[in-house]
Amino acid sequence: MNALVDQLCHRLVVSCQAYPGEPMRDPDTMRRVALATARGGAAGIRAQGLADIAAIRAAVDLPLIGLWKDGDDDVFITPTLEHALAVADAGAHVVALDGTSRPRPDGRTLAETIAAVHERTGALVMADCSTFDEGIAAAAAGADLVGTTLAGYTAYTTKGDGPDLDLVARLAAALDVPVVAEGRIHTPEQAAQALRAGAWTVVVGTAITHPSTITGWFAAAVQEAASCR
């Protein structure tokens, strides 16, 4: 097993991302968020965008999973080989990319993309998948880690309220590569459940680093309680 991947074993990775147009959509802000989560015990960081990746890599001495969201097509998480190479060049130790069965914009297969990233940069690759079959195929294509990131976010999968723990368990039982639980993990207990289901590591984003959403959860609960008085 790769030493960097070993550092993430049964540990927490925090996704430090902000959506376009939001007040926190700034590389230096994300750098500071990453520093804060590292102080809180994060074992790794997941970041989006070349400037964010570079800023965080320079400031935080933790394994860094990088991606580049680009385009309006179904495949927009590091959609092409050029995107993947740029993510690695920006400082990501692990390049996260779309690992679904959908066609990639540059026409390359997932296996071709992964092989090129390995050969040209030496970075590892995390495949963001949405189904069991996609996870199996991604591992066969050479992915170093397989994530459940896109479960519920493709047209052919169903989005639940919480993480897809069944998918985590099935992939963990079937694969020799580490399985990353990611997607709709909103509580510490859900994170623990993901590890008990067999995840190598757990990625949490919104529930830690997205104040607008977290505030919305509290505001809705307070409003609901007030309406009952």
Automatic annotation (TrEMBL):
SUPFAM superfamilies: Ribulose-phoshate binding barrel (SSF51366)
The UniProt record lists the keyword Isomerase: yes
Pathway entry: Amino-sugar metabolism; N-acetylneuraminate degradation; D-fructose 6-phosphate from N-acetylneuraminate: step 3/5
Family matches, as Gene3D superfamilies: Aldolase class I
GO molecular function: N-acylglucosamine-6-phosphate 2-epimerase activity
Keyword Isomerase part of the UniProt annotation: yes
Superkingdom to which the source organism belongs: Bacteria
Pfam families (UniProt xref): NanE
Enzyme Commission number(s) of this protein: 5.1.3.9
Catalytic activity: an N-acyl-D-glucosamine 6-phosphate = an N-acyl-D-mannosamine 6-phosphate
Keywords, in A-Z order: Carbohydrate metabolism, Isomerase
Annotated signal peptide: none
Coiled-coil segments on the chain, per record: none
Record-linked InterPro entries: Aldolase_TIM, NanE, RibuloseP-bd_barrel
Role this protein plays: Converts N-acetylmannosamine-6-phosphate (ManNAc-6-P) to N-acetylglucosamine-6-phosphate (GlcNAc-6-P).
Family to which this protein belongs: Belongs to the NanE family.
Record-given protein name: Putative N-acetylmannosamine-6-phosphate 2-epimerase
Source organism phylogeny: Bacteria, Bacillati, Actinomycetota, Actinomycetes, Micromonosporales
Encoding gene per record: nanE
